[in-house]
Amino acid sequence: MALTMTWTKLRHLLTLQKHTWNTIVVASRHCNNTSQPTTIQQVDEEVAKLLDLKAQLGDEPTPKTVLKTPKGTRDYSPKQMAIREGVFKVIVDCFKRHGAETIDTPVFELKETLTGKYGEDSKLIYDLQDQGGELLSLRYDLTVPFARYVAMNKIAKIKRYHIAKVYRRDNPAMTRGRYREFYQCDFDIAGQYDPMIPDAECIKIVYEILDNLKLGNFVIKVNHRLILDGLFEVCGVPKDKFRTVCSSVDKLDKTFWEDVRGEMIDDKGLDPISADKIGEYVQLNGSSELVEKLLKDEQLVQSKAAKEGLEGMKLLIQYCDIFGVKDRVRFDMSLARGLDYYTGVIYEAVLEGAELVKSNSKSKEQIGVGSVAGGGRYDGLVGMFAAKGKKVPCVGVSIGIERLFSIMEAKMERGNQEVRTVETEVLVASAQPNMLEERLRLCKELWDAGIKAEISYKANPKMLDQYQYAEKAVIPFLAVIGEQS
């Protein structure tokens, strides 16, 4: 069996090996010069020792440790972190501007808390080994933990934001901002309010964040789960297939209708006639005029759910117009959002023309990040945790920070933009030797005054080196200490 050894041990074994060979040579000479019958036995013993040493040394070298991040994760350099922190600031400032307070929850939850909340995406939850008699899973998103928090603390109304990492056992596509570990930035409003007012504010928040980040044109797609349920009803979809058919429709932003139709018929057993009827509707998009058109659709409005959803959509677009964001909002019948907990309005923001090529990519792979924000209304989720099933209506939005970052990073690479990674305001320097203590005292005074300052850690640094460091770090001021002659 091969052993892992230190160099000291290895040298020791090699010394023993050399000694053993010397013993064999001496024994051989003795065999030639005497008639002792034990000489061959001595050689066999020494050979056996050599074979034992060889077994200890092993035939294969110890493999080197592979230095890499786990699949679907990445490290971030100081430059990348500076970009991310800038994005976070824009998002947090917006959340606070709209009156939100922040909370935090554990990175893992009881498995039963997460089970049955995500539909077909439940297979992407990371389960942990049994620890202390509890079956745990890493959180899949921040919405279900928030609902658990509201129910557990018997909260009737709250407007909160939460920025934290979530985990998905997915097939990562890192050039498209799709990871197994990533941040979500959530904003949610919980409580009983008049229809569509909080929903419209969530859409306004998405608009403000994307507009302030200046990533180019974007569109916020909106739809309503009641419209989809009514559509499935009038198209002859069995009620027990509503959610699974909804998951198929949700793929229309990534593939063609023919592929979605095939999945619904071949994989999910939907009648082809029903699939074709669905196809006539889910390829429609527009604004208030489409809502008016569908309200006159005699087949669709036979469904009470569809009619209620269309009236809600009409009101939502009206409020979006007042908020000044109607020009970015598109009523899209293909938007489904596959998570099971949505009950009302759903929305998703997509950057237009977000196909970028990384300048350092040899393969020239394009970055198409898909949706960069999404959310909706989930009025029944808190009731799954609350005593006696007490409902607390909720609506919220999640900003896809990783996808936004992928776009911003690629744009900065293409534009060769400089990114400052430190916030130092003053570099305390000296033009003469033996000024270390004076530099330290001045630096201390600056720190005590709340001024961001640095010094060179050399006792007698060269003036040119200090200038060059300040220039490289884009430090705006130098405080140079020296003695008058």
UniProtKB/TrEMBL annotation:
GO terms for molecular function: ATP binding; histidine-tRNA ligase activity; identical protein binding; RNA binding. Its EC number is 6.1.1.21. L-histidine binds at residues 141-143, 168, 184, 188, 337, 341-342. The keyword ATP-binding applies. GO terms for biological process: histidyl-tRNA aminoacylation; mitochondrial translation. Keywords: Aminoacyl-tRNA synthetase, ATP-binding, Ligase, Nucleotide-binding, Protein biosynthesis. One of its GO terms (cellular component) is mitochondrion. It is an enzyme of class 6 (ligase). The keyword Ligase applies. Pfam families: HGTP_anticodon, tRNA-synt_His. It catalyses: tRNA(His) + L-histidine + ATP = L-histidyl-tRNA(His) + AMP + diphosphate + H(+). Residues 72-433 form the Aminoacyl-transfer RNA synthetases class-II family profile domain. Belongs to the class-II aminoacyl-tRNA synthetase family. This is histidine--tRNA ligase.
